[in-house]
Amino acid sequence: EREAALTATSGPGATSDGHQVPLLANIGGPADLAAALAAGAEGVGLFRTEFLFLDDSAQAPSEEKQTETYRQVLEAFPEGRVVVRVLDAGADKPLDFLTPAAEPNPALGVRGLRTLLDHPEVLRTQLKALAAASSGLPARLEVMAPMVADRQDAKAFADACREAGLSAKFGVMVEIPAAALRARAVLQEVEFLSLGTNDLAQYTFAADRQVGAVSRWQDPWQPALLDLAAFAADGAKAEGKSCGVCGEAAADPLLACVLVGLGISSLSMGSASIPYVRATLAQHTLAQCERAAAAARATDSAQEARQAAQAALSGE
Ligand code: PEP
Ligand code: MG
């Protein structure tokens, strides 16, 4: 059945009644591009640039090296969006030369955008490399910051992008509940939101994503997480802007339908999941996705939410 579903569709992501939902790839670098293209990704929704920084634990890669890498990624998708996330160091991805050594709770410490604002030269080099890589190419580069908490963070990031001469769309990841709750304020500074459901679950449930004993709270089906996603999507809609998802939640075909039903406008995932998500979305209308989303949010646990969505989508 899984194979049959795979051959059912190809091309752009859409519900059965034609509501478009771009399906994008999460990549760690040029090595992942072939799989993204083979899966029919419509672009890159999350380029995790920290992988570029792992080769040398003492310093950041040069502007030239970064420019070359970003250009390879941009050239692979001449028609599609390419959303590059600036360096997300700290917590589960520590970098010796940037991450403070002795924090009691690294996930709650200086990481993501906070690290970059403490090391503006690292952010500046990365943004200048992105500006150089995209010059002369059709303008479809989008740049986003990880671990944004509030409007002030979003403004600091947008200011840094403008100062680096970057002509791209600027956005932020919603990984901290505060940013979801104040999505409309954050969107006064930037053009789009992208939900990082892995960290959003960690911070919503106070459950470290690296601690197996609390893994039950990492389940993205939890109704509280769906509520936050809906809140962010509603805020974006009210501002006339977009809100995608780039966390693991987008890779679960059933949950992808629910996210679309909540008003999420694009889904980015590991390339291997794209055909399954495309096939499942193509079997349901937007109205059915909306009913599944409402049914899931009306429950009190991840397990019930999954069952309710499944029942709503199959009893149609
Ligand atoms: C997330 O937190 O959901 C996310 C996409 O970022 P990462 O997994 O790289 O922290
Ligand atoms: Mg994250």
UniProtKB/TrEMBL annotation:
Keywords: Cytoplasm, Kinase, Magnesium, Metal-binding, Phosphotransferase system, Sugar transport, Transferase, Transport. Residues 12-284 form the PEP-utilising enzyme C-terminal domain. Its main location: cytoplasm. Its EC number is 2.7.3.9. It is an enzyme of class 2 (transferase). The keyword Metal-binding applies. GO terms for molecular function: phosphoenolpyruvate-protein phosphotransferase activity. It catalyses: L-histidyl-[protein] + phosphoenolpyruvate = N(pros)-phospho-L-histidyl-[protein] + pyruvate. It is found in: Cytoplasm. Its cofactor is Mg(2+). General (non sugar-specific) component of the phosphoenolpyruvate-dependent sugar phosphotransferase system (sugar PTS). This major carbohydrate active-transport system catalyzes the phosphorylation of incoming sugar substrates concomitantly with their translocation across the cell membrane. Enzyme I transfers the phosphoryl group from phosphoenolpyruvate (PEP) to the phosphoryl carrier protein (HPr). Belongs to the PEP-utilizing enzyme family. This is Phosphoenolpyruvate-protein phosphotransferase. The lineage of its organism: Bacteria, Bacillati, Actinomycetota, Actinomycetes, Kitasatosporales.
